[in-house]
Amino acid sequence: MGYTFLHANAPPGQCGCFSANGGFGSVVFNLPHGFGLVADFTAVHANNISSTTQSVTVFNYLFGPRYSFRSASRRFVPYAQALGGGSRETSSYAAVQNVKGAAFSVGGGVSTTLTRRIGWTIVEVDWVHSYLPNAKNDLQNDLRVSSAITFRFGPH
User: Fold this and answer.
1) Distance CA 123, CA 30 (A)
2) Which of 60, 72, 93, 155 could bond 42 through an S-S bridge, CB–CB 3.0 to 4.6 Å?
3) Mean pLDDT across the stretch 50-76?
4) Residue 61: CB partners within 8 Å, gap ≥ 6?
C-alpha cells in the first residue's frame, strides 16, 4: 500500500498536462528464480485542471509479470514489470464523465527489507499508457511515481 503521484498528458499536443495524487495497492505472488505475478490497483484525483473547475479521478487495474533481481548479498532489490489491464475515468468534463478503456504500464523500482515481515518500496516509476477518450486522440501517456510500505506473508 502506498502513495502515487501521476503526471498525465491528456490530450497531447498543447500538453493538456495535469498532476494527480492518490494511492495504490499491489499484491505480488513471488515465484522461484526472481519471477512474480502482480495485481496493481491505483486511484488518483486532481482538481482545478488547467486552472478550470474541472476535476478527474482515474482508477487503473493492471496485472502481469515482475522480475526481481534478488541476491543474498543485496540489501536493495531492483525489479522490472510489465502490466496490462484497464483504466476508468470519472470527470466533471462533459465529454468524458464516466469512461473506461484498455491500459498497460512498463516500469520498475527498488525495494528493501525493514523487518522480517515489513519492507519498503523506496521508489517505483512506471510509464502508463491508456486508451481513454480525451477529445483529441484517445491516448494518454502518463508518468507514475510511487512509494509504499510492503507487508510480507508466507515463508521466507
Assistant:
1) 19
2) 60
3) 86
4) 39, 40, 41, 85, 86, 87, 88
Res 12 pLDDT > 90: no
Measured CA distances, 118 to 22, 125, 127, 148, 151 (Å): 22, 21, 27, 11, 5
Give the SS3 label for residue 70.
coil
pLDDT value at 66 more than 60? yes
> What is this structure's pTM?
0.88
Q: What is Dmax (Cα atoms) for the chain? A: 54
Q: What pLDDT score was predicted for residue 10? A: 62
Element (H, E) at 122: strand 118-130
Contact indicator for 76, 112 with CB cutoff of 8 Å: yes
For 129, counting Cβ atoms within 10 Å of its Cβ (0-12 exposed, 13-18 middle, 19+ buried), the class is middle
Cross-strand partners of 6:
20, 144
In the three-class reduction of DSSP (H, G, I as helix; E, B as strand; rest coil), residue 22 is classed as strand
Nearest to 149 by CA among 125, 116, 114, 108: 114
Distance CA 46, CA 30 (A): 34
